[in-house]
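Archive transcription. Copying these from loose printouts into the bound notebook so they stop getting lost. Printout 1 of 2:
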Amino acid sequence: MEAETISVRVHNLYGRYVEAVETGNLDEAIGIGLNVFEELLELVKKTVVPGLSTPSIREIVLNVIAHYERELSFVKGAREAVYKMPSIYAISVKEKALEILSYNMNGLFNFLVGALLISADIYACMNALGL
């Protein structure tokens, strides 16, 4: 899937996510949020990582990705766990999962945009120098 297609899909999913959060549909919001998060991770892996040639920078970016993958796993685990607990506790776990999900989606999105802007600047400078 092309980066542009993923970007449009993420934008549409994020709109649905915000709507689900605003209406208080926690289960739907978590499901959509997980989809957005996974799409963002995939976009980082396909657009940022391949353009990295410096081993130390590549390692840093892979560590950042690993951090977000752990956060994604935590939210997925919490989502599975709520089905086995009393509803009084499940609501607070769902709210915490949404908090973690929202925080990390925003962080990952900002990371992606920053990385793409820096990459675009480097390529523009290289083209200007004729490299």
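Printout 2 of 2:
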Amino acid sequence: MKIPKSFLPHSSLEGRPACQTFRRDACRVLRRFACDMALRSREFTIRSHSHRVRAVDVFALQTDSLLVEIQPSAGAGGVQMSYRTCQGRGDRAGGRCNAVNVQSLGTDQGYANLLSTFRVVAGRRR
């Protein structure tokens, strides 16, 4: 998987065009996760919500048992990605957050390992 430029540490989210690019890239990555996990369109939701502590948009892929979140990183730029278990699509608290190394998505093995982890958490066999 090719990592979008807006996810890299040197990128800045200053200004409206940069935020729109980040939004597009985050939603595209989440849709790719859903597609590669063989989820049907009614089995997942992609949405954005504001983080309570900071005024930052968080983009999330949510199934009935998995929540994957992408948000801008504080400080040096780039993004933070995490996943956790949940009970239903309304559950945003869920289990413990597990951080994802975004740079590992750039390798075939790293991406395959992450998808297999998502499948296990989501309760999917394929």
